[in-house]
């Protein structure tokens, strides 16, 4: 059904004078929506679910603008990579985004920015050679003249350099050459950037192309000069994109002549773009893609067994860790603080947060992106509890207002390789955690022949063929965990927990009136087990309320990682059996839902980052599937992340209300979304979700 423009205009004219500063009517194809906005408010903050915006598809601008705008103005905003720091020629989208914000001031407009690295040809003027991250390098053993010839030079260890090091298998190393200072460390104030042409490992020589990336050739003396390969990622995308150079965030990194380290220069470079007069001042904020807290366990930082990061440029790899302190992560946190200070409290700052090595700028950033739910390679959503914990913890500990979103995509698969039930469960994960859904790489059959660029949306996002975004409306309560039933409870008190507790060597535990205090002075982690828990098999839900002291040498905002899993002897299959959460000084309840527990007795294993004291102030364990439901003004969402079927009682969840299935669109799941009445009970198969609409007046 299309709404005539005359009806919309008539509705707009009925707004009482002075009650609202503006009204917005959106008509795009068959998508219909009238919504009112208070002056200056972004629609993404409205309690109208599924909250949603377009992820990165809008950066692929096309003409005419009016067609592009019609496509991407249907939700609550757009996000795009509109600078050329990673992909060339994206910057032509800046003017589209600017006009979009002028036309739709109520919609959020966000920049997507690589937080780890940038193209060395993109505006590197504020940076100097020592601001980049290098592998531990080698001493140059031959004199180098100040000319631009391609030359072969002798080095102390040619294994530090590599041909075809780019992810496309085509790019040789980018290398920095510099003098060695009196302290034996690299002195990047006198340096040159070159590109490797060939390596002769037998004779320890490398052939280099001189004076690259806008640098000038320098003369260097044998034994008093240094060569180091850049740590890079990519190249990403198609075409002539370059591998990207990593920033050296470490607080032990070299300083430029103004005494600045990379984290300071990068923060200032980002801030100037968003401040008044900057090219992106019209935007509401940004999201940092791949902003990591540590270098270890980071696939881009080491690609072989020879070369590792050297943050202080002394020629020895260090991973950014000195005297047990992660200086790389400390620099990332200082970067976050400086950027927040410069942008002020109102600009949105987000970053990836779906992995243990991602940034942990709690209280500084507004929230996280989960690239895929729970992550883009989890095609069975096995890490459902980890995803829930991450989003809930960020919501409770973010710089206000909190904004977490799910980028609905898969890393190696396309539609329809991942089945409909999993797609539904992803979308359900967003509305059950108060997160925002981000429409990304979904391309079913295009039913809009007038626009080849048209971005289709899942039926669950837009109420099927009725094409109504935000159709669920306001939630009528929080998410219900249906396993929380006293009839299914296993442990009843903290003393029960304490009686099943087994500690690793060096751990101490004490049962107090406030909870169980566990500590391990001088150790890097708390490790303990719950042994001999009764289990009825398969499903086990653990709810654990925890708080703890900060890690002594970590930044104050840093939250400690918590990992909980079934022991190898307690599982019935090889499915993932360890889930993550966080803890800090504020009590927080994490959930750990296991789907493959053995029948009889099982053991749970715990590992908490840092040896500082932790207080467990609440515990509940249930032997039921971690099924969930949430009731909204105009519908209900049911989710079953377990390995078996689950029956939902709609009358118990929402007494006296009748629900109908959505009417599915062509090319989507018209079997499940068949438009029929739902009945009093609904049984969902394993790993599935269901969105039901409420009939008006019910």
Model description:
The protein is of the alpha+beta class and 698 residues long. The chain folds into 4 domains: 5-116 and 273-301 and 325-466, TIM Barrel; 118-261, no CATH class; 486-622, Galactose-binding domain-like (Jelly Rolls, Sandwich), CATH 2.60.120; 628-694, Golgi alpha-mannosidase II (Immunoglobulin-like, Sandwich), CATH 2.60.40.1180. The protein is 14% helix and 32% strand. The chain is built from 10 helices and 39 strands. Strands 25, 26, 27, 28, 29, 30, 31, 32 and 33 form a 9-stranded antiparallel β-sheet that branches. α4 runs parallel beside α5 (327-343). The longest helix is centred in the middle third of the chain and has 17 residues, at 327-343. The protein is globular, with a radius of gyration of 28 Å. Residues 1-39 have low confidence and may be disordered.
Under CATH, the topology of the largest domain can be stated as: TIM Barrel
How confident is the prediction overall: mean pLDDT? 90
Question: In percent, how helical is the residue content?
Answer: 10-25%
CA(first)-CA(last) distance: 22 Å
Which architecture of the largest domain does the CATH hierarchy give at level 2? Alpha-Beta Barrel
Assembly state of the chains shown: single chain
């Amino acid at each position: 059904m299309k709404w005539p423009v005359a009806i919309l205009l008539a509705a707009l004219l009925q707004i009482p004078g002075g009650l609202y500063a503006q009204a917005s009517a959106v008509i795009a194809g068959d998508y219909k929506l009238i919504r009112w906005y208070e002056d200056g408010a972004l629609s993404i903050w409205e309690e109208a679910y599924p909250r949603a915006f377009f992820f990165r598809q809008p950066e692929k601008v096309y003409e005419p603008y009016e067609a592009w705008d019609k496509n991407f103005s249907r939700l609550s905003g757009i996000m795009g990579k509109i600078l050329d720091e990673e992909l060339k020629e994206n910057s032509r989208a800046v003017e589209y985004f600017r006009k979009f914000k002028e036309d739709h001031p109520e919609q959020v407009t966000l920049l997507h920015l690589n937080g780890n690295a940038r193209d060395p040809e993109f505006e590197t003027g504020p940076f100097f050679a020592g601001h980049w991250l290098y592998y531990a390098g080698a001493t140059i053993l031959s004199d180098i003249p100040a000319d631009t010839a391609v030359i072969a030079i002798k080095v102390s260890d040619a294994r530090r350099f590599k041909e075809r090091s780019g992810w496309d298998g085509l790019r040789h190393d980018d290398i920095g050459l510099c003098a060695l200072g009196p302290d034996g460390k690299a002195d990047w104030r006198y340096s040159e950037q070159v590109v490797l042409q060939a390596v002769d490992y037998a004779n320890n020589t490398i052939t280099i192309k001189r004076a690259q990336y806008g640098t000038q050739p320098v003369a260097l003396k044998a034994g008093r000069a240094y060569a180091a390969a850049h740590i890079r990622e990519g190249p990403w995308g198609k075409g002539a994109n370059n591998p990207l150079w990593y920033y050296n965030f470490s607080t032990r990194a070299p300083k430029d002549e103004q005494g600045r380290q990379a984290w300071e220069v990068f923060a200032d470079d980002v801030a100037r773009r968003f401040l008044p007069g900057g090219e992106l001042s019209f935007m509401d904020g940004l999201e940092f893609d791949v902003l990591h807290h540590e270098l270890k366990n980071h696939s881009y930082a080491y690609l072989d067994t020879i070369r590792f990061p050297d943050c202080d440029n002394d020629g020895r790899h260090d991973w950014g860790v000195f005297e047990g302190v992660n200086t790389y992560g400390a620099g990332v946190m200082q970067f976050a603080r400086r950027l927040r200070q410069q942008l002020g409290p109102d600009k949105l700052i987000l970053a990836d947060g779906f992995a243990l090595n991602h940034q942990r700028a709690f209280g500084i950033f507004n929230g996280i992106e989960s690239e895929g739910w729970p992550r883009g390679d989890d095609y069975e959503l096995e890490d459902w509890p980890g995803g829930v914990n991450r989003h809930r913890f960020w919501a409770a500990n973010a710089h206000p207002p909190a904004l977490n979103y799910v980028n609905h995509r898969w890393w190696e698969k396309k539609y329809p390789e991942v089945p409909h039930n999993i797609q539904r469960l992803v979308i359900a994960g967003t509305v059950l955690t108060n997160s925002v859904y981000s429409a990304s790489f979904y391309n079913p059959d295009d039913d809009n022949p007038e626009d080849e660029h048209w971005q289709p949306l899942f039926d669950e996002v837009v109420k099927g063929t009725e094409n109504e975004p935000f159709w669920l409306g306001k939630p009528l309560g929080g998410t219900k965990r249906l396993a929380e039933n006293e009839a299914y409870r296993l442990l009843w008190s903290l003393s029960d927990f304490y009686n099943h507790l087994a500690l690793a060597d060096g751990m101490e535990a004490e049962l107090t009136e406030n909870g169980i205090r566990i500590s391990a002075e001088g150790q890097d982690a708390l490790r303990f087990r719950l042994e001999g828990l009764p289990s009825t098999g398969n499903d086990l839900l653990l709810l654990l309320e925890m708080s703890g002291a900060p890690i002594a040498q970590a930044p104050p905002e840093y939250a400690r990682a918590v990992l909980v899993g079934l022991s190898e002897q307690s599982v019935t299959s090889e499915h993932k059996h360890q889930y993550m959460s966080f803890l800090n000084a504020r009590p927080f309840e994490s959930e750990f839902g296991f789907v493959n527990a053995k029948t009889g007795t099982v053991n749970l294993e715990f590992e908490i980052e840092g040896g500082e004291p932790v207080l467990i102030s609440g515990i509940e364990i249930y032997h039921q599937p971690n099924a969930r439901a949430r009731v909204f003004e105009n519908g209900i969402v049911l989710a079953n992340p377990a390995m078996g079927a689950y029956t939902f009682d709609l009358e118990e969840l929402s007494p006296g209300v009748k629900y109908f299935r959505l009417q599915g669109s062509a090319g989507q799941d018209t079997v499940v979304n068949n438009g029929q009445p739902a009945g009093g009970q609904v049984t969902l198969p394993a790993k599935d979700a269901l969105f039901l609409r409420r009939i008006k007046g019910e």
